[in-house]
Specification:
The protein has 292 residues and is of the alpha/beta class. Helix content is 42%, strand content 14%.
């Protein structure tokens, strides 16, 4: 029996007091928000704060330059700290995402932010970088599983894990008993991936999900003009659920067929609506229309 729990990422809210943001998320009908370690606070204090708004903690996000050997030790230390928090908070998943953007320069001399939406084969990681990325993710997976937390790879535009070819290659190298999938629907579409086909192919590995919709005319304009990642974002490529072209009903049916039991985290990085609250309401109402 599938069990879909609906959460909302705080990223849409800009320059808003945290109390107002959490209240608006709860009032829109969401059950939780992403939560991780906070400096100066115990896990219980973080949970108590969320409980004031009747919200639960949902999987947090570990981003690192996994392809760099010199970044490995810091990534593993952060993974351990975040896994302990997740276990104490009752979370069983952690999103793990590659860094990139200006930090990864391709063979064409461009950074990955500049190639977003228009990635060529020569923009990808080298064999050695794929091997290092996979090895580090396996170690991250071992660390988090010791705490009962599954590390779920999160694809992201503007990084070396954007296209279907890049994701497939990495997953051919990792130990799938240690490393799972935590896809983002919008970033898949930005990378030219057929979202429904991807969910069908990886259904058994998907343990947590970010939900984004994509404005197709904006996506097509950005590809034609060669926008960098941040321009796509600011021009409104991400839109509220049900307002873009992603086939969420088909995607959800795939998850139901494998008895998916996890969080669906709505994430609209930048909204074109007047307020973040309105954005959250539109997306939540769309999910309600699908029976969620």
């Amino acid at each position: 029996m599938s069990n879909f729990r609906i959460a909302c990422c705080q990223i849409t809210w800009k320059d808003v007091p945290e109390e107002q943001m959490l209240a608006e998320i709860q009032q829109a009908g969401y059950e939780g928000v992403p939560a991780g370690p906070r400096k100066g606070l115990t896990t219980q204090q973080v949970l108590d704060h969320l409980a004031k708004f009747d919200l639960k903690p949902v999987p947090s996000y570990l981003g690192a330059n996994f392809w760099l050997k010199e970044a490995e030790a810091a990534a593993l230390e952060r993974a351990e700290r975040m896994a302990v928090f997740a276990r104490e908070a009752g979370c069983t998943e952690l999103f793990v995402a590659s860094g990139g953007f200006a930090n990864y320069v391709t063979a064409r001399g461009l950074n990955r932010s500049q190639t977003a939406g228009n990635v060529l084969p020569e923009d990808g990681m080298t064999d050695e970088e794929y091997d290092q990325c996979a090895a580090t993710l396996n170690r991250v997976g071992e660390i988090t599983l010791k705490e009962g937390v599954r590390s779920c790879v999160h694809n992201h535009g503007g990084t070396p894990l954007e296209t279907r070819e890049e994701i497939d290659r990495l997953f051919s190298l990792v130990d799938r008993e240690l490393v799972f999938m935590g896809p983002d629907t919008g970033h898949l579409a930005l990378g030219g991936v057929d979202v429904v086909e991807f969910f069908r192919d990886y259904a058994d590995s998907i343990k947590t999900v970010h939900l984004k919709d994509v404005d197709l005319p904006v996506l097509e304009e950005g590809r034609a003009q060669g926008w960098e990642y941040w321009t796509f974002k600011e021009k409104g490529v991400w839109t509220e659920l049900g307002q873009g072209f992603i086939d969420f009903p088909a995607m959800l049916e795939i998850l139901k067929a494998v008895d998916y039991d996890g969080w669906l985290v709505v994430e609209t990085d930048v909204t074109q609506l007047p307020t973040a609250e309105e954005s959250a309401v539109v997306s939540r109402n769309y999910l309600r229309s699908l029976g969620l």
